[in-house]
Write a structure and sequence with these properties.
alpha/beta, seven-stranded mixed β-sheet, four-stranded antiparallel β-sheet
């Protein structure tokens, strides 16, 4: 974790800023002239060195209002209310340093928690190999598609702070650095550890400007209106409250910023019914058992996919995929507890109801049958001025 994140993260319980306790850290070289923050703020090298030059490997973030404690483990802040239960070894190890205090607020948030989804997606993203194509697409293609999805041209994002909500193994988040952005990947699974370890693999010398956070989009550990743009692909439909997750994206985006979401599209009734029947069983199986079943199920599923594609005169996207890529796709469909599907007009209404403008359907042609994607712009804030003066926008 870089100290720069202190400008961005907030306590998911009380919303306050953090004080930082550092237990172990190292230095990381970076080029100040390539820092996206320098493009928008006048900062000298010494100030940038403080923000980006230290990599905090283990430490604690303590909220200023209620004193809630969150661990930093393997360089990633774990900003989930149930951190005490998920990382008891950390709190035992640093009991003395933390004075043995663990506020009750941590444990009070555990009621009704969906424990399956973090396990499921954590397993899924850790099974992926980085040479695999995510959803049958290589990383270079996903980088290009990102610009189309966000409705921006190459070069338009330079100097901007971008949130990738639901980043999984984080390859796309890191690869966004090539567009000149500072990127933050948020995910509620332990996949963020792998993402952090592999930043340099995908961001190269820009890795110091890529950050990962373990956090829940329904309790976002992020400052309001701190991001220039928010991107979330294939995520909010797996939450118990997709509208609430969408509202979180809007809340953390600055006025004038873009908000993008991609969700599952409603399918034909016969597909929806058969999928629901299978999921009624698979979502009750232990994730590891289901993963073991997905591998031998791939050939059967492949035959069915080709049969349906032939009837529709289409070419399935999985034509050139590997066994593991197809198994992950199956697991992604049949394992998560929550799975909502939408029509384009329903997602457009999300944007309308949130007051966003310049709403555009940016669903990719190669995903039209399965997905729905929209981008919109958060309106600028009207700034009151003295009588007789022209209205200005911020």
């Amino acid at each position: 974790m870089k100290r720069r994140l202190l400008d961005i993260v907030r306590c998911p319980i009380d919303g306050s800023a953090f004080d930082l306790e550092v237990f172990t850290s190292t230095t990381e070289n970076f080029d100040p002239d390539k820092c996206p923050l320098r493009l928008v703020r006048e900062m000298d090298d010494a100030a940038l060195q403080r923000l980006y030059g230290e990599e905090i490997l283990e430490g604690a973030l303590i909220s200023r209002d209620a004193g809630n404690v969150y661990p930093i483990i393997a360089g990633v802040p774990r900003l989930i209310p149930h951190a005490a239960r998920d990382y008891p070894e950390f709190f035992r190890k640093y009991r003395t340093a933390l004075k043995g205090k663990l506020p009750d607020a941590h444990l009070a948030q555990l009621a009704g928690r969906d424990r399956r989804s973090p396990k499921s997606f954590g397993l899924q993203w850790n099974r992926y190999q980085f040479e695999d194509r995510t959803w049958f697409k290589d990383l270079a293609l996903r980088q290009r598609e990102f610009l189309h999805s966000m409705g921006v041209a190459r070069g338009q994002l330079a100097g901007h702070l971008v949130l990738d909500a639901g980043c999984g193994h984080g390859a796309l988040t890191a690869a966004l650095a090539v567009h000149g952005v500072e990127a933050v990947g948020l995910d509620f699974t332990v996949a963020v550890e792998r993402a952090q370890q592999n930043r340099a693999r995908f961001a190269g010398e820009l890795a110091p400007f890529v950050h990962y956070i373990q956090g829940d989009l329904l309790q976002p550990p992020l400052a309001p209106e701190c991001f220039d743009h928010a991107h979330s692909s294939g995520v909010i439909h797996h939450t118990p409250d997709p509208r609430g997750a969408f509202a979180s994206l809007v809340r953390v985006t600055r006025p004038g910023g873009r908000v993008y979401v991609q969700v599952y599209r409603k399918r034909e009734r016969w597909v929806a019914v058969s999928n629901a029947i299978v999921r009624a069983v698979t979502t009750r199986l232990p994730p590891r058992l289901l993963w073991a079943l997905c591998l031998p199920a791939v050939p059967v599923h492949t035959v069915l996919v080709y049969l349906v594609a032939a009837l529709r005169h289409e070419r399935p996207m999985l034509a050139d995929s590997t066994l593991r890529e197809r198994a992950v796709s199956l697991f992604d469909n049949f394992s998560p507890r929550y799975q909502f599907r939408y029509r384009p007009e329903e997602i457009r209404q999300f944007f309308v109801d949130s007051g966003l403008g310049e709403i555009e359907d940016t669903t990719l042609a190669n995903e039209m049958r399965h997905m729905v994607a929209f981008v919109g712009v958060k309106p600028p804030v009207r700034v009151p001025v003295k009588a007789g003066a022209k209205m200005a926008t911020a």
